[in-house]
Amino acid sequence: MAFFFLIIWKILVLFSTCFWWFNLIFFFFLFLAVWFFGMNIKNLIFFLLNLYLIKHPNNFMPIFKRKPFGHILLLKRCLVRMIEVVAQGRYRCFNQLKMEGSDIIRDLPPNNVLFVSNHQTYFADVAAMYHVFNASLKGRVDSLKNIGYIWNPKLNIYYVAAAETMKSGLLPKIFAYVGSVSIDRTWRSAGENVNRQVKMSDISNIKKALDDGWVITFPQGTTKPFKPIRRGTAHIIKTCKPIVIPIVIDGFRRAYDKKGLLIKKRNVLQSMVIKQPIEIDYENDTVDEIVKKIEFGIEQHPSFLKVISVAEYKKQEEELDKQRNFWDIY
Predict the structure, then answer these.
(1) pLDDT per residue as tens digits for the range 193-231
(2) Which of 271, 248, 242, 273 is nearest to 95 (CA)?
(3) What is the pLDDT of residue 271?
(4) pTM of structure
(5) CA geometry: angle 291, 260, 247, nearest 5 deg
(6) Are the C-beta atoms of residues 239 and 290 closer than 8 Å to each other?
(7) pLDDT under 70 in the chain at which residues?
(8) Hey, what's the torsion of the CAs at 2, 3, 8, 10, to 10 degrees?
(9) Beta-carbon contacts of residue 326 (< 8 Å; ≥ 6 apart)
(10) I need a labelling partner for 84 at 20 to 30 A (CA). Which of 4, 25, 78, 143 fits?
(11) What are phi and psi of 145, to 5 degrees?
(12) Distance CA 89, CA 93 (A)
């Protein structure tokens, strides 16, 4: 009997890593066993765990492994799956996400990669990047088809966020557990302008995240467009020497509220363009030169700002709305 359970277990583990829908068979197997053998759920789970531990004692330990910031791997994996499953409808149903650059993602090393992007909402931007990164790593070509790619997500993806934002409620705290590198902003706190020193612990935490994996940062530090790049990002680049990937997003501000939690408007065309790495001479480029390269990379340099009349702006919006309504659904 134990041999029978072991064979079934191995098959389920193998296929569940490849096909998300195969996990339904696992749950069906559990309930079937409960009904057939008259076991309760608790005893059945303990039986299967003990069986697996006896045969593969070393394979079970990674479940309890913690990431560099003390996050439990299993819990983090479950949270990423849950959040991304809920969020996917925002990019494929209510609205559409047009993405470019999945081939660039697949060619990146597993760590010391810094993504710099313009910022439009607190959470929707990052959630979309988690989708795009994992879909690209699983072989999707500029597409989010088949959400099975989220079953085994890349867990060493981090994003830099303001500590006060990530402590503002239960949901932000959950998002923080998924991968936030929370820092204290030096220029603003609780809605007030401040001027304080950079905490060395914040810099060391960003370096720790880069050593472990990929880090997403929004160097403007605000969701308002065409604001100046914070020089701290350039200092981190010179210190840690990461591969710097610029990302340009659009449409998120129109589709969601400022926090990125509520859908404000449907049938909005969202876009995410992942560009080639920025060429940086870590030894000779000055901080100002790196800042300027980032501004051009994420298309937030003043030269991209074109002042137009209100009437012309409304006309452009009407034309964009027509394109969004007829956008091909992936």
Answers:
(1) 666 667 788 889 999 999 999 999 999 988 888 899 988
(2) 271
(3) 92
(4) 0.74
(5) 30
(6) no
(7) 1-67, 186-197, 306-310, 313, 320-330
(8) 110
(9) none
(10) 25
(11) -65, 145
(12) 5
Euclidean distance between CA atoms 13 and 15, whole angstroms: 6
Half-sphere exposure of 93 (CA within 13 A, CB side): 8
Q: How far apart are CA 244 and CA 197, in angstroms?
A: 25
Domains defined along the chain, listed by start = 2-64 (no CATH), 78-325 (3.40.1130)
Joined tokens for residue 278: 């920025």
Q: How far, in Å, CA of 88 to CA of 64, rounded?
A: 28
CB-based contacts of 303, cutoff 8 Å, min separation 6: none
pLDDT tens sequence across 78-98 = 888 888 888 888 888 888 899
Tell me the one-letter amino acid at 165.
T
What DSSP character marks residue 148? Answer: G
Please list the residues that pair with 72 across neighbouring strands. 66
Token pair belonging to 235 = 């200092």
What is the spatial distance between Cα 84 and Cα 70, in angstroms, rounded to a whole number? 22
3-state SS, residue 69: coil
Per-residue b/e over 42-68, b at no fewer than 16 CB within 10 Å? eebeeebeebbeeeeeeeeeeeeeebe
CA distances from 185 to 75, 164, 178, 199, 301 (A): 28, 9, 20, 9, 22
- What does R_g of the chain's alpha carbons equal in angstroms? 23
Residues paired with 189 in a beta bridge: 192
CB crowding 185-221: b at 16 or more within 10 Å, else e: bbeeeeeeeeeeeeeeebbebbbebbebbbbbbbbbb
Residue 226, classed as helix, strand or coil, is coil
3-class state of residue 272 by DSSP: strand
Residue 266 to residue 90: CA distance in whole angstroms? 9
The CA–CA distances, whole Å, from 171 to 88, 165, 225, 323 equal 17, 11, 26, 34
Which amino acid is located at 49 in the chain? L
Cβ–Cβ under 8 Å, residues 87 and 147: no
